[in-house]
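pinned: reference chain
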Amino acid sequence: MSETMIEQNETSDQGAWGAVLSMSLCVAMLIASEFMPVSLLTPMAEGLGATTGQTGQAISVSGLFAVATSLLITTVAGRVNRKVVLVGLTALMLLSLVLVAIAPSFAVLMAGRALLGVCVGGFWSLATSILMRLVPKHEVPRALGLMYGGQAIAAAFAAPLGSYLGDIVGWRGVFWALTPVVALNLVWHLVALPSLPVETRASFGTFGTLLRRRYFLRGLVAITFTWGSAFTMFTYLRPFLEDVTGVGVDALSALLLVLGGSGFIGSSLAGRMVGGRIERMLCLPALVMGACTAALLLIGNSVIATAALLAIWGAMNTAMSVIWMSWMSRNVDDLPEAAGGLMVAVIQASILLGGVIGGFLLDLLSIRATFAGGVVLALVALALTGDGRHLLNPDKET
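pinned: its structure tokens
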């Protein structure tokens, strides 16, 4: 191979990883925009004159639109260049932040959250399949780990900063602060992402083909309870920390920083540890996160114990996405966009389910009941996942 060809390959590799980094920042902004209200739930409820449970459920409306978009994006977008689609979704995210920041009522708030749901569903449906085109197959877990590092960044800084800044500039000011970063990311997409023409157009019949694969359908059911458990707890974490752990704004911000900061460890380790035996890792998210939630019910009144448990929970939270998306990339690599759409639809429906169940238990009983509900869902997820072997494509070597 000539020196010129080597230099061209190195330039191509650098450009591919630059595009991955651009997507990682987009992930960070999506996560910050979608889950920032977790750290602002109490003041948002007060500002809009609603209960905490009602506000949590209203915020979760983004999940409903994410579900619809994830199922429609590959068919509605048709043969539109995927770079154009990602740029358009990022522009919608910018608009949604402005709407939430100026929201004078629940109607406008929900409109902004609905637009955000479109962005979330569209981006996540295409993200893994795009990474599979940007980097070599053996580098996909690493690229996923890097992209989900954006999730860790958001979890590490968005929630505690949101809690801290919300006390200074108000919850609306926090959402305004996100807009220039999203605008910058929009420009980065335009520069870094290569042209991504669509090779084959998916149809609704493609979803039927996937759902007839029993191993994939079983995986979707396991994912439902895994994410549902996580977000029954996570959506209502602030009320738990305020009422049970008994922390103020400063300690709350510190605990959220611990939870998010540990996500760096989770995404980094998962990207490196996902090996040939992916099925052995599928049960870990429900097992570890469910156990942490159960432990919080027992010793959540201790700030130190709570910090330790949130660190473990946060690390597994980011690892969870890398693990399950790696499973998808290896077992459904012939239809990655359609598979990604179905997975995102199920994940977003599960997040919505967690918000609704958690809010219902909180308003009807107590925050402890909300966390107990999350533990029950984790146990169901564990039973469905088992050793993971029944979730593998029988036509592939493992």
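why pinned: The first helix runs from residue 3 to 48. Residues 37 and 59 are 7 Å apart (CA to CA).
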